[in-house]
Each structure stands twice: as C-alpha cells, then as structure tokens.
Write a structure and sequence with these properties.
Helix 13 packs parallel to helix 15. The strands form 4 sheets. This protein has a 6-stranded mixed beta sheet, with helices on both faces. It has 3 domains: 140 residues, P-loop containing nucleotide triphosphate hydrolases (Rossmann fold), CATH 3.40.50.300; 172 residues, 3-Layer(aba) Sandwich (Rossmann fold), CATH 3.40.50; 72 residues, no CATH class. By secondary structure, it is α/β, with parallel strands linked by helices. The N terminus is likely disordered. It is globular. A hairpin with a 3-residue loop joins strand 11 and strand 12. It has 18 helices and 20 strands.
Length: 519
C-alpha cells in the first residue's frame, strides 16, 4: 500500500485490557489424519486489529472458520469473554457477536443487496421500500456506492465484497473476521475501508485481519500473528515488525523483490526499452457508458501495465479485445491486430488469432475445479485450432502438463488433486498454464496475483517478464500499484472509460499514477 495515501493506524493497547474477548488455547484441526492447524495459541482483545498472515495453506482460514463456528476444532480450548464456547453452526457464533467476511462471498446471487444485508434478521412482514431505505443509509454511511435494489448477481466482485462488509456491520458484531477484504478493492476504496476499520475499532470492535498484502497488515494492525504449515511461528506487536521480517517468518527464507523492468533497463546501460512490432492497436473503442473512446497500442516484447480505479474500463477493454464483450456496433471504434481491423464475435476467434485473456476471477471463470491439473492444461490446448482433435491423446496431455508444471513450478505432488483442493498460488499457475499452452501472441493478465501468497508472486512476475523476453506482447491490469511499477515497461492510466495518462516505467511513481487515476 502507498504510505502517502494511508496513514498508519494508532496502536491500541491490549496490555491495558487483561481479559481477551476471544482466546484459542492449543487449538488443532485434523482432516484425514493431517493437521490443518496444530497446537495454535491465539487471543484477541476488544478494540484491536490483529493481523493473521501466512502463505496459502498455512492454516489462517481454518483457524478463523473454527472461530466463526463454520468448523469445530479437533482439540483445544475456545473461550469467548473468558467462558468456554462451543458453536454448532455459524449462526451460533453470530449470536455471540462473531461475524466472518469470507474471501469468496457467501451472498445469495438472486437476492438484492438490501435483502442480503437483512438475511437472517427478516421480520414476518417486510416492505421492500423500507428495506431498501435502511440498506441505502447503511451503505452511504460506509461510503459504499451501491444501489440496494440491485441483485447481487449483477454486482462486480468489489461491490459484492462491500455488501459482505455492510452485512457484518449491520449485525453489530463485536468480533469481525475479514478474510482478504481488500483483494477486490482499488487503492481509493481501500482507503475508505481502512477508515471503516478505524471507526469499528474506536467502537471497541475486535478485528481479525487476513491479507496477502503485507503492507496493509503493517499499516492497519496492532499485533500480527504469523502461521506456517499450520503452526504458530510468532505473535508480536506490529511496531516490532517489518515486511522483511514477516516474509522471513512466513516462508522461512528471504525473498528478493525485483523491479524487473527497471533492472532490465539498468542492465541495458540505462537505455530505454526497445519496442518490437506494433501488434495491437485500439482506436476510439466505445462500449456503452463503461468504455468511451479508449485508445492505446501494444508492442511485441513489452509489458504494458494498465492502472485505474474500478469502473475505469480496464477489464472491459481487455474483454472487448478478447471477444467476451461487444463494443458498440456504430461508432464503436477500431481494433487492429498487426495493422488489420478485427472484430471477434466470440473468444474462440480471438484465441485462434493469438489473443488470450487470463481472468481476474479464477474461481468463477479460470478453471474446471473438479478436474486435475493435467486435464485443465490439456483443455486449454484443445480449445485452439491447432490443438483440437476428435480423439484425445493421453500422451500429449501428459507431455503438455509436465512442461507447464515444470515451467511454472506448479506443485507436482498435487497433480493428481482436483484444482479446487490446490492452494491459491497453484490454482493461479494452472489458470496461466491453461492460457499459455495456446501459444498466444498477446496475453492479457487481469489481476494476476490477487489472492496469491507472497512466495508465489515473484514467480508469476518472472513468468510475465519471460513472456515479453520471448517476444510476446503482455498487458497487465492490476489494482496493486507496486505490482504495476515492478513489471511494466510502460504504464497506462484509465479513468472513466479513457486512457488519460501514459508513463515510462522509469518516470512513474505511485503518486503520479493515483493522481492521474483520480483527477
């Protein structure tokens, strides 16, 4: 997170509150003879933000699900307000004032935002008008711009997360668990969310904060607990921690943070990046009120980062180029591939032309969750004109999967597991492999490291740079500005459906990008 934009939260003083509102003693949870968490000691005080960090599979979500009543501990003590607690279901925990905002939202898609906020607290007779007014007042107080009458299925990922947060506040929870609450939010929305966390803490609410963005945890928390492989590594005051210490505790080693584009320029004697052939030209593309006369070009052998707030048209322009969304039929602008105008009716045509789009929502659109790694990668190849075949080849499937498992460092031990059972980092690698196996000319990455653990992020960044070095044109759409700055040769800033600024990687800063995105 940008230190200029988000002021550090003043530290609370748990020491002045000797009785924790929640305590786990020697907590363990076993699945099939394997410990998901083992002998964990954890406590939480009123009016504090306690960050819980660790790589995917470290046990963070398991611990919090036990706290929220979604699962039961196999062994250990669980006390709330100094008294033993045993919840049969999440509703019991909610009645005790414990609410969890999950990473994958638990909303009912066919119900409106207002109905989801009220869910579980419905009165015998409810007027929809009254329900919408109450929800509107709550959403406005949280600075969330959502129409309460809109069905959740029509809301984007970020706005669904906002409804989840609003529901937790509405339930007047004394303990709120946030699982990756900012994963779908833009920097501006994160500022609003942090202000909300501060307000909740001032009211005495105790908060458990799970996030892969270590900068956020260091900014917002009072204490930090690190888990690794299901075990407690350390619990310490945030003031005693740095990002480097956290990473070392999380992965057991130091991880270098390389600004690839700038490092490449330095290795090139400070000379600017040499562009290859212009492979994609977007000229005055328009789609309704979301994309308005957007124009830019992409060259072979470079990484172009696109930054901007949600609603700026970043994702939509990628989907228009890919054929997943349709630009206006009249005055919709022009898209040229290697100088020739194209208009794809379906993504299959774009794939055949050498364009792939790697989705921001891998769980919904990125893979077949009940299939194994090999089958997902093979299906990616079968979707191409050159890879399609009537009779399936087990040999080709194994060869393709082995190549991409090795290249992307997908956990080979998990190749026989269903994708849904893999860690977030390995799931994302499978999504990338399923697209890259199509041998594309242009690759769009939409939020490539969202929900990915800190150890996997440099690996994905290295693969993005490798694609550019192989002569492919790469476009990275990301809300995380350090990521855009780290891997891009050029950075475009989108605002209100237009590209409003362009920076060379050497001259770009977080402040300049945010200024262009907001003003």
């Amino acid at each position: 997170m940008n230190d200029v934009l988000i002021a550090p939260v003043p530290s609370a003083s748990p020491a002045s509150k000797p009785e924790p509102v929640l305590r786990i003693g020697h907590g363990s949870k076993i699945y099939g003879g394997v410990h998901a968490i083992e002998d964990i000691d954890f406590d939480l005080y009123a009016g504090e933000v306690h960050a819980l960090v660790g790589e995917n599979g470290a046990g963070k979500s398991t611990l919090c699900k036990a706290i929220a009543g979604a699962i039961k501990l196999t062994s250990g003590e669980y006390d709330v307000d100094g008294k033993p607690a045993e919840f049969e279901r999440p509703r019991d925990a909610l009645a005790a004032g414990i609410c969890m905002v999950y990473q994958e939202t638990s909303l009912v898609p066919t119900m409106t935002a207002a109905q989801n906020i009220e869910l579980g607290n419905e009165k015998l007779l409810t007027r929809f008008r009254t329900l919408n007014i109450q929800a509107q007042q709550l959403l406005q107080s949280l600075n969330f711009h959502i129409d309460p009458a809109t069905p959740v299925a029509m809301l984007g990922t970020a706005k669904r997360q906002m409804v989840e947060i609003a529901r937790a506040v509405y339930n007047k929870a004394r303990i709120i668990i946030f699982d990756e609450p900012t994963a779908s939010l833009t920097p501006e929305e994160i500022i609003h969310f942090f202000n909300l966390v501060r307000d909740l803490r001032r009211r005495g609410v105790a908060i458990i904060y799970i996030s892969h963005a270590l900068e956020e945890s260091l900014q917002i928390s009072d204490r930090i607990t690190v888990l690794r492989d299901g075990k407690l590594v350390v619990t310490a005051r945030t003031a005693e921690m740095t990002r480097e210490k956290l990473v070392r505790h999380m992965v057991g080693r130091d991880i270098a943070q390389t600004h690839y584009a700038r490092a490449a320029k330095a290795a090139n004697g400070g000379k600017p990046h040499v562009r290859g052939e212009k492979v994609l030209t977007v000229e005055n593309v328009t789609m309704g009120m979301v994309v308005k006369n957007m124009s830019f070009s992409v060259y072979a052998g470079e990484v172009v980062g696109i930054a901007g707030l949600i609603g700026s048209g970043r994702t939509e322009i990628a989907k228009i180029v890919f054929g997943a969304l349709k630009r206006n039929l009249i005055n919709g602008g022009t898209i040229k591939l290697r100088g020739k105008p194209v208009r794809y009716r379906v993504p299959k045509q774009a794939i055949d032309a050498g364009i792939v789009y790697i989705t921001e929502d891998r769980k919904q659109n990125g893979f077949f969750e009940t299939m194994v790694v090999d089958d997902n990668v093979y299906l990616g190849k079968l979707s191409t004109r050159t890879g399609w075949r009537f009779l399936l080849s087990k040999l080709m499937r194994n060869e393709l999967a082995s190549h991409w498992v090795e290249r992307l460092k997908i956990s080979a031990l998990q190749r026989k597991a269903k994708i849904v059972e893999l860690s977030g980092g390995n799931q994302q690698k499978v999504v990338v492999a399923k697209s890259l196996v199509q041998d594309p000319l242009i690759v769009f990455f939409d939020e490539p490291t969202r929900g990915v653990d800190v150890g996997t992020i440099p690996e994905i960044h290295a693969q993005i740079r490798r694609l550019a070095e192989e002569g492919k044109a790469v476009v990275v759409i990301s809300s995380y500005l350090p990521e855009v700055l780290a891997i891009s040769d050029r950075i475009l800033v989108a605002r209100l459906g237009r590209i409003v600024a362009e920076f060379d990687a050497a001259e770009a800063t977080e402040d300049r990008i945010m200024y262009a995105a907001i003003h």
